Amino acid sequence: MGKIIQKRVLIPKRVTEMTIKAPVIASKARPGNFVVLRLSMKGERIPLTIADADPEKGHIVIVYLIMGKTTALLDTMKEGDVILDLCGPLGRPTSIKKQGTVACVGGGTGIAALHHIAKGNFQAGNKVVSVIGARSKDLLLFKPELEKISHEVLVSTDDGSVGHKGVVTEVLEEYLDRDPDVKEVIGVGPVPMMRSVARVAQPYGIRTLVSLNSIMVDGIGMCGSCRVNVGGEIRFACVEGPEFEASQVDFDELMMRLQAFKSQEKESMELFEKKELL
Amino acid sequence: MQKKAKTKTKISPRVSMPMLDAVERGRMFSEVALGYTLEQAVSEAKRCLQCKKPTCIKGCPVDVDCKGFIRMVADKDLAGAFARIKETNSLPAICGRVCPQENQCEKTCKLRPTGQPIAIGRLERFVADNYYAHTSCEEETGADSCVPIDESLKVAAIGSGPSSLTLAGYLAANGVKVSVYEALHSPGGVLLYGIPEFRLPKSVVQREIDSLKNLQVDFLCNYVGGKSMTLPELFQQGYKAVFLGVGAGLPRFMNLPGESLIGVYSANEYLTRVNLMFGYRFPEYDTPVPPGRNVVVIGGGNVAMDSARTALRLGAERVRVVYRRTKGEMPARQEELEHALEEGIELEILSSPLSFHGDDQGVLNKMVLQRMELGSPDDSGRRQPVPIEGDTFSLDTDLAIMAVGTGANMVLTQTTPELELNERGYVRADPETGETSMNMVFAGGDIVTGAATVVEAMGAGRRSAREILKRIKG
Ligand SMILES: Cc1cc2nc3c(=O)[nH]c(=O)nc-3n(C[C@H](O)[C@H](O)[C@H](O)COP(=O)(O)OP(=O)(O)OC[C@H]3O[C@@H](n4cnc5c(N)ncnc54)[C@H](O)[C@@H]3O)c2cc1C
Ligand SMILES: Cc1cc2nc3c(=O)[nH]c(=O)nc-3n(C[C@H](O)[C@H](O)[C@H](O)COP(=O)(O)OP(=O)(O)OC[C@H]3O[C@@H](n4cnc5c(N)ncnc54)[C@H](O)[C@@H]3O)c2cc1C
Ligand code: SF4
Ligand code: SF4
Ligand code: FES
């Protein structure tokens, strides 16, 4: 349990994919689930989405963006190393039913997280249109993987190095205009992107979900750290989410709360880089 | 045995317990109450009247033979006293520290009317602490000898709080193989992540867990009941019964304006960051704890006191506890309230928060409160706090901690539709046996009763263990 089977650098010094042995989690992981991991006795618990799972082999896949101390430390681990604590699958799975066309919108590292959801919809017999965006071509993740499980993959980059030049929601909007059969939109990515997905999809009256990444500690519905404001009510992303109805989410509050520990995170990362903390 | 005291006036006062100095301790995490010495324990035990009809035992949710073990302490027979306590209480070092004795055994002690009941909890703690070098089975259970473990008789406990620990101890002592599944990375439940080091040292909890391991109880961390494995799957794996001790869950908030500001935390989050994640040693440990100079804690129970005293130890200059009734109605353990006041924590009674305010970065800097008064009694006989119209005031604060209760933990129940819940989301269980709506699935502790006490959770674990044993051993 927890052994790193394969490590693949997707974007050097930024994004890495790991395949991890975790038979119990792999056998239960549904699209939309995440794990919480802890790397050392002094480490923090952080949530990462299960980007894929292979129940036969007993493997799960995670893809992480190096953000601070814990993800940087994770990135120093090699194939064969063992992750100290790995807990999951957590969160409510995406509710997937056969319904027609589903637009899966992903931005940045969120594209990897989206992969499992797109795959679930594909296997359920839905028409999957993946709409993905990044700043430039070399920062675009998982396009080949998504092509295998999507009927269509639409791409945008900020600099136009591949696909549409502009933001991913412009591509989404264009697609929604073109295809009246879209039954559901799912957005996973940076908060501003998810907010924009909510705004773009709203006029079409299509059910739209976003996967919220609020700060978590236990991930099992005990601490209250992950609370988000949905429809004016306090909801807990780890046990009631992480997916919520996009139009109801208070994205400003989420953005604000993600900054709660900024100065400590910075201190922790600086010490880590100076090799004073491992 | 000493002579019976004839009149109330002859009762000597309780032997007080040595403590760390209030000013000094307010800045450190060392345990506050230091425990009795042998002389102190013996002289306290000798105050016991050894009543013909002892009433103390009735007050204890797990039926500790207080009279019996206290006599042994008076006779300096600590081994005997330990065995006697262990017959019914598997976690005496913990209970002696955290039971609200004034509402339990010491409340029903015959000496209570004198204001000087026997210090049963302190004696229990003394016996446990002083006898703990020994961990063999007989000493673990008070039984003459141990039943060997029968690997084919397997029982699973989900959650590792006091209810599950008690169940595991009882069953293991009777030859049953118990596996305890815990979702977090270390076992202990609230004993670990909730109650702080200065009140219940982690080493005391670890000692209890280690002694269960000696009885071949397995602890499997990072397993989430209902997610990593379902209940039917556990039965398929050969478990004969499953006990659910998953505890209380989501913290309550008050749905007030500004409650999401940076600087407003639930007590659960605050205490978890400090206790489970060792955030008080950041940056050596990675998990940050919100700093607070001017701290306000909302609530009046143990959780509020623990949060307030933790904030003080983390360097707060001023800590105030806001409570909507008066000091007399505070549900906290009396001793904790006294300790908190000695350490310099201030009370803001008869007030209730109305809103929180922050700067343009969303960082809390002020809160507005409503003054209350006590109105007429409600059904339970308690006088209800009612707002005094127009009487509001504000407090500057950079850290507000909400300790206003918790709801039911939903991580297991939401994936187990077969399990019958009550209207508040707690598991329905038979009060005598703990059996739930699912066959051979039992439940106890906070997931059944809502937030209660350690010893009540233990009592539930014990009742279920007894029933499970009866059923699986036939
Ligand atoms: C349900 C969920 C799924 C996620 N899935 C992925 C994923 O698949 N890939 C990925 O790269 N990231 C994912 N994240 C975000 C990831 O958890 C954070 O990037 C990570 O915790 C950062 O930790 P750090 O120590 O490296 O950085 P830090 O320096 O500690 O933090 C950098 C930023 O990450 C956020 N963060 C910090 N601690 C936590 C925490 N305990 N929980 C959540 N966010 C935190 C904060 O916004 C913070 O400002 C997910 C988050 C959630 C809630
Ligand atoms: C800060 C604080 C102070 C307190 N002070 C006192 C005091 O002084 N005296 C007193 O008597 N009582 C006190 N209490 C109350 C007391 O701690 C609880 O009543 C008692 O711990 C409840 O025990 P439990 O067995 O129900 O489980 P808990 O102690 O609640 O533990 C439940 C465990 O189950 C785990 N879990 C949950 N879901 C799952 C799942 N699906 N799978 C696996 N594991 C799971 C949790 O992670 C947790 O470890 C306090 C509580 C708090 C929070
Ligand atoms: S277990 Fe608690 S209530 Fe019972 S005798 Fe001991 S201290 Fe008193
Ligand atoms: S009721 Fe009080 S005095 Fe009487 S036996 Fe019990 S502890 Fe001793
Ligand atoms: S992360 Fe603790 S309640 Fe959700």
From TrEMBL, chain A:
<dbReference type="InterPro" id="IPR050353">
    <property type="entry name" value="PyrK_electron_transfer"/>
</dbReference>
<dbReference type="InterPro" id="IPR017927">
    <property type="entry name" value="FAD-bd_FR_type"/>
</dbReference>
<protein>
    <submittedName>
        <fullName>Oxidoreductase FAD/NAD(P)-binding domain protein</fullName>
    </submittedName>
</protein>
<keyword id="KW-0408">Iron</keyword>
<dbReference type="Pfam" id="PF00175">
    <property type="entry name" value="NAD_binding_1"/>
</dbReference>
<feature type="binding site">
    <location>
        <position position="238"/>
    </location>
    <ligand>
        <name>[2Fe-2S] cluster</name>
    </ligand>
</feature>
<feature type="domain" description="FAD-binding FR-type">
    <location>
        <begin position="1"/>
        <end position="96"/>
    </location>
</feature>
<dbReference type="GO" id="GO:0051537">
    <property type="term" value="F:2 iron, 2 sulfur cluster binding"/>
</dbReference>
<dbReference type="GO" id="GO:0046872">
    <property type="term" value="F:metal ion binding"/>
</dbReference>
<feature type="binding site">
    <location>
        <position position="226"/>
    </location>
    <ligand>
        <name>[2Fe-2S] cluster</name>
    </ligand>
</feature>
<dbReference type="InterPro" id="IPR001433">
    <property type="entry name" value="OxRdtase_FAD/NAD-bd"/>
</dbReference>
<dbReference type="InterPro" id="IPR039261">
    <property type="entry name" value="FNR_nucleotide-bd"/>
</dbReference>
<dbReference type="GO" id="GO:0016491">
    <property type="term" value="F:oxidoreductase activity"/>
</dbReference>
<dbReference type="Pfam" id="PF10418">
    <property type="entry name" value="DHODB_Fe-S_bind"/>
</dbReference>
<keyword id="KW-0479">Metal-binding</keyword>
<dbReference type="GO" id="GO:0050660">
    <property type="term" value="F:flavin adenine dinucleotide binding"/>
</dbReference>
<keyword id="KW-0411">Iron-sulfur</keyword>
<dbReference type="GO" id="GO:0006221">
    <property type="term" value="P:pyrimidine nucleotide biosynthetic process"/>
</dbReference>
<dbReference type="InterPro" id="IPR019480">
    <property type="entry name" value="Dihydroorotate_DH_Fe-S-bd"/>
</dbReference>
<keyword id="KW-0001">2Fe-2S</keyword>
<feature type="binding site">
    <location>
        <position position="223"/>
    </location>
    <ligand>
        <name>[2Fe-2S] cluster</name>
    </ligand>
</feature>
<dbReference type="InterPro" id="IPR017938">
    <property type="entry name" value="Riboflavin_synthase-like_b-brl"/>
</dbReference>
From TrEMBL, chain B:
<dbReference type="GO" id="GO:0051536">
    <property type="term" value="F:iron-sulfur cluster binding"/>
</dbReference>
<dbReference type="InterPro" id="IPR009051">
    <property type="entry name" value="Helical_ferredxn"/>
</dbReference>
<dbReference type="InterPro" id="IPR036188">
    <property type="entry name" value="FAD/NAD-bd_sf"/>
</dbReference>
<feature type="domain" description="Dihydroprymidine dehydrogenase">
    <location>
        <begin position="27"/>
        <end position="133"/>
    </location>
</feature>
<dbReference type="Pfam" id="PF14691">
    <property type="entry name" value="Fer4_20"/>
</dbReference>
<dbReference type="Pfam" id="PF07992">
    <property type="entry name" value="Pyr_redox_2"/>
</dbReference>
<dbReference type="InterPro" id="IPR006004">
    <property type="entry name" value="SudA-like"/>
</dbReference>
<feature type="domain" description="FAD/NAD(P)-binding">
    <location>
        <begin position="154"/>
        <end position="461"/>
    </location>
</feature>
<dbReference type="GO" id="GO:0016491">
    <property type="term" value="F:oxidoreductase activity"/>
</dbReference>
<protein>
    <submittedName>
        <fullName>Glutamate synthase (NADPH), homotetrameric</fullName>
    </submittedName>
</protein>
<dbReference type="InterPro" id="IPR023753">
    <property type="entry name" value="FAD/NAD-binding_dom"/>
</dbReference>
<dbReference type="InterPro" id="IPR028261">
    <property type="entry name" value="DPD_II"/>
</dbReference>
